[in-house]
Every structure is written in structure tokens, then in C-alpha cells.
Write a structure and sequence with these properties.
Layout (H helix, E strand, L loop, with lengths): L1 H22 L8 E3 L3 H13 L5 E6 L7 E3 L1 H18 L5 E12 L1 H4 L11 E10 L6 H4 L17 H11 L11
Parallel strand pairs: 2-4
Antiparallel strand pairs: 1-3, 4-5
Length: 182
Amino acid sequence: LAIDTIRDAVRRGKSMMRELMTFAGETHGKLQRIDNPVTLIRESSRLVRGGVGPHIVLSYNLPESLPAIDADPTQFWKIFFNPIKNAAEAMKDHPGEIRVTARAFEMTPERAETFTTPYTPSSGAGVLFTISDNGPGIPAALLRRIFDPYTSTKSVTRGLGLAIVNSIVEAHGGGIRLAARL
């Protein structure tokens, strides 16, 4: 029993260290050409399903013909997992829906200005991934800090999930745009 507790603590510590290193930019991912980005979402969907309760409907609108992207598959799944997990947790035990969509997207300097991230996303052809839900939304006072480390609406959390997502998206040359319901 004690050995199982120790192993669990080591696994959690290792996971936390990986998250901190990712956030700090200390993990140098290896970008590789992904001809069909939908495969990355499908692979992560199995992990995502385990992170949400049975009261949440996950729906996907993923066309097969998307432009190829350069991505690190070992990191890319977190871009979907963390926001989906957060949305599901915010819905608590209430029924809800989380939608993941993808479409071809041309990043221009004008479009880049509409993104929330503090860096400028790379211009060019790519894919716009959207995660939306019908949950309670993010409190307006928190929107400006949502990607800061240790920012959370939950009392028991590390508050690193969205900071890590932001770091991974930046490392991929992408950007994040937030929209909140009024």
C-alpha cells in the first residue's frame, strides 16, 4: 500500500515537472509535417473522453481535407485536452456540450491582430481549431489573465493548464482567440 502511494506521488511529481518545463519553454518539441491534422484530434479524443463526465456530449466537425501543418504530436494533444477538461469541470454535473471544429485558415497580419495571445501568430496557410461549449463561461474579470500561470477558478488546482496550452500554441507559431458569451 505504501509503495503504491509513493509510485503515485512520483508519477504526479513527474507530470507536474513536465508541465512546468513545457510552460517555461524548456521542452524543445520536434515539429514534424502532419499531412492530415484531423488525425491529431482523433488521437487526442480518446484521452479527452476520459477527462469528461458522462453528462457531457463531445461533438466534432472535422473535415478530412485540411492543409498540412507542422506539429509536435507529443505536445499538440494538450491544446485540446486542457480546455476541454476545464470546460467539462465548469459544467460540474450539469448536462452540456463541447464542440471541436477545424477548418482551413489563412493567417494575415489583420487577422493576427484579433488574437488574444501576446505574440503575433505566423502568417500563412494553416488550420483554425475551435473549441466551444455551452457552459457558464469564463468570468470577465479573469479573461485578461486566463493564460497566466496559477490562474484558476477552482480552489484545488495548479492553474497551469491554459498557460501550457498558450506556450504550446506559441511554439507552433499559432495564436489563441478567446470569445465569451455575454
